[in-house]
Amino acid sequence: MFNKHGRLATITGLGIGLPDTVLTNHDLEKMIDTSDEWIRERTGIRERRIAGPQQATSDMAAVAAKMAMEQAGVEPGEIDMIILCTVTPDRFVPMGASNLQEKINATRAAAFDLNAACSGFLYGMAVAQGLIFSGRYQKILLVGGETLSRIINYQDRNTGILFGDGAGAAVVVPSDDEHGLLAYDLGCDGSGGDLLQVPAGGSRIPATRESVEQGLHFVQMRGNEIFKLAVRAMVRSVDQSLADAGLTREDIDWVVPHQANQRIIEAASSRLGVGRDKVIINIDRYGNTAAASIPIALYETAQRGLLKEGDIVALTGFGAGLTWGSAIIRWGRLGE
Ligand code: COA
Predict the structure, then answer these.
(1) Is the CB of 260 under 6 A from ligand 1?
(2) At the top level of CATH, which class does the domain 9-178 belong to?
């Protein structure tokens, strides 16, 4: 279908790349002053995946990308754009997307990183939609991939329990019909930037012996404040994108939220009036994988056979920046 801008963008392939190593709450009990019970009750997390010493973001992203391309029936040489959503690229320079482009041999693809933290995949969907509307790009590989374990201080119980590593990928192409991304909403409030940050390693505080000794290259977070803002922003954002799509809360078949905290997800879905049976939660197995969490959850939802053609799927998330967003998709068909 054509809307006022052009053809809709639709997902035809999904994939994931997860490290094998599992870090359980019981493992963490031996590392920091915490308990399995506290973590489960306050976050819903039981375990998370941790990358091996030789594994970086582009490695997991490549596994996810190959799986997504295979499902979509798209050859690497047909991909014309790669968007890697990440806050943990292999290196600062060059961008992670170029490592990914080489690994999957996507020789025709332009590529770039997108850093919108946990909202990355939502920002990426919006960018993919715009590129498709332009008529210039036809086969976009949109990947969320993170190796957060590299920037987490496992002596800090505030953050050490929450995060995990992994990647999720989607092939996004122009839709032939009325299925695809119907509307999205994105937002940012830079005044909340200090609530979740890695203070050093950038141009403000470059990496020095002192910065490393002070642990300033690790994530610092004021979780409690983020919690309340996250719930409010996600609810508002979903309402906004539903309105833009000409739909209402009752039209939602599935909510696939960013997996930051089970209590955040439950509070947001209950405020949206969406039943627990329509909300996808896999945080128990992966923790918070930032930009990777929505595509991993979407992949698992599809794998379980839950997504039917025509279903209205609401993606929503919130993260460092602060950033937030949502996307309303009329689900189409995976495969060629
Ligand atoms: N194990 C045991 N106790 C812990 C703990 C841990 N891992 N982490 C914190 N505590 C303690 C605190 O020290 C505090 O103790 P006190 O009352 O004696 O001071 C108590 O538990 C409550 O801490 P609080 O920070 O209020 O807990 P919380 O219910 O807000 O849960 C988070 C903490 C981090 C789980 C929660 O705030 C959260 O998930 N926030 C959102 C973070 C997020 O999503 N970030 C990423 C955005 S994409």
Answers:
(1) yes
(2) alpha beta
